[in-house]
Write a structure and sequence with these properties.
By secondary structure, this protein is an alpha+beta fold. Helices cover 48% and strands 10% of the residues. It contains 18 helices and ten strands. The strands form two sheets. Strands 1-8-7-2-3-6-5-4 form an eight-stranded mixed beta sheet. Strand 5 and strand 6 form a beta hairpin. Helix 12 runs antiparallel to helix 13, helix 13 crosses helix 15 and helix 14 runs antiparallel to helix 15. Bound molecules: adenosine-5'-triphosphate and magnesium ion. The site of magnesium ion has 4 residues, from loops. Magnesium ion binds next to loops.
Length: 413
């Protein structure tokens, strides 16, 4: 294997400068190094810095064991069942994750109760080269060495960054069986970075897409929310549909043109700085399906709509173990859109207009009306009505003190 001989890019051959690295992360790197350990910035942060992007978080790799890390940092604690990681706590609830280099275990080393696919989280320490090789894509396997500010490339990630190309480490046919979530991550990173996907990845997705149903739902749920947070839910879900992944990823989600167009509007909303809530994302995913199964008309009443909304939302929330609060909100947003689409007058919907979730339902409805122009006048009317109703319901001003009339106070005797 190539793990022992990385290509080394000295400081003057790459663009990463220390002042782009979070100061607390630098402190941790330096402290590890001062105590004789290897201390690397790893994973997504190196990739993003080399691309001139702001990393979401800074992770650290080291050859110190978790216990050695814990002893070195008073503000640290160990987490993780199978693989122990050190979390170092800083002001403002900031956590910096330090992981000991690890390798992919051989089949014989796996305990019996291991998840069917998720092999790569085993607690087997390894060399930096082995640690790079267990990662998913070449561009995610680059290291920044604090000892001499060089970048270490064991697997050709630098060239792939230059070529804007996504390459799986090793054979995608094998790596996707090990962990099917990597198929979704491939489509996700290509969209995030605007990279092309290597042909062998497409072949492996075509071969193994069904395995997505065997991935741990919690991990699929997390990656799906990442799509929304990174404002790429529209293009990624579209690509997943073209690749035949959708039914194995989100069983009930139809992924029609209109629904994908709505996801794009949701991405624009997030790009404008409005944080995405999971309930909003779920309601958006299933809005069209819900409206088709329960056409908003004067004949349909709310209890029928509730039944339909439950039928659509509950299987999704059960599969992904989504908390009842989020499920409830998602359902309320669908019902809200139903009421808005039904378009009964202000008087009939008076109580609905005062509901705290109504403005959010209107937001979703307004986004939907952008892909369904026939709904635009309705969305505009409601928007005015809701603004009016919230103005009317503003908390009453405290009563002004009445001025005393000019009756002289009786003198107490
Ligand atoms: P970002 O945090 O910006 O979304 P990232 O690359 O840091 O991107 P994470 O999900 O935080 O992605 O994972 C951190 C690193 O762990 C990745 O860069 C990759 O090296 C490795 N990794 C994550 N998921 C997998 C996986 N399913 N298989 C192999 N390696 C993985
Ligand atoms: Mg990360």
């Amino acid at each position: 294997m190539s793990e022992n001989k990385p290509t080394i890019l000295p400081r003057d051959q790459h663009c990463i400068s220390r002042n782009q690295i979070d100061p607390d992360t630098l402190k941790v790197l330096y402290r590890l190094q001062r105590h004789g350990y290897k201390a690397y910035l790893v994973g997504g942060s190196v990739r993003d810095l080399l691309l001139g992007r702001q990393p979401k978080d800074f992770d650290i790799g080291t050859d110190a064991t978790p216990n050695q890390v814990r002893k070195l940092f008073r503000n640290s604690f160990l987490v993780g069942r199978r693989f122990r990681l050190a979390h170092i706590r800083f002001a403002g609830n900031k956590i910096i994750e330090v992981a000991t280099f690890r390798r992919q275990p051989e089949m014989g080393e796996l305990p019996d109760d291991v998840d069917e696919h998720f092999h790569f989280v085993q607690n087997v320490f390894g060399t930096p080269g082995e640690d790079a090789a267990r990662r998913d894509f070449t561009i995610n396997a680059l290291f920044y060495n604090i000892a001499d500010f060089s970048v270490l490339d064991y697997l050709g990630g630098i060239q792939d960054l230059k070529d804007k190309r996504l390459n799986v480490i090793g054979d995608p046919l094998i790596r996707f069986v090990e962990d099917p979530v990597r198929m979704l991550r491939a489509v996700e990173f290509a969209a995030r970075l605007d990279f092309t996907i290597e042909e062998n990845i497409y072949t492996a997705i075509a071969e193994h897409k069904e395995l997505l149903t065997t991935a741990a739902p919690a991990r699929v749920r997390e990656e799906i929310m990442e799509l929304f947070r990174h404002k790429i839910s529209g293009p990624v879900l579209k690509h997943c549909r073209e690749l035949g992944m959708l039914p194995h990823l989100l069983a009930g989600y139809p992924g029609t043109e209109e629904s994908i167009a709505l996801m794009q509007k949701i991405d624009h909303r997030t790009a404008a700085g409005i944080p995405i809530e999971e309930s909003f994302a779920i309601a958006a995913l299933y809005l069209r399906l819900f409206m088709d199964s329960c056409p908003p008309s004067a004949k349909t009443n709310i209890s029928q709509a509730l039944l339909q909304a439950n039928e659509i939302i509950i299987p999704h929330c059960r599969y992904f173990s989504i908390a009842s609060g989020i499920r409830h909100q998602a359902r309320e947003l669908l019902i809200g859109c139903f009421r808005l689409a039904r378009g009964r007058g202000l008087r009939a919907e008076k109580r609905f207009l005062q509901h705290p979730l109504t403005p959010k339902a209107l937001e979703l409805f307004a986004l939907w009306s952008q892909v369904r122009p026939d709904l635009t006048p309705l969305a505009e009317n409601w928007s005015k009505a809701i603004q009016g109703s919230t103005a009317k319901n503003k908390p009453a001003q405290p009563p002004r003190k009445r001025r005393r009339k000019n009756h002289p106070r009786k003198k107490s005797v």
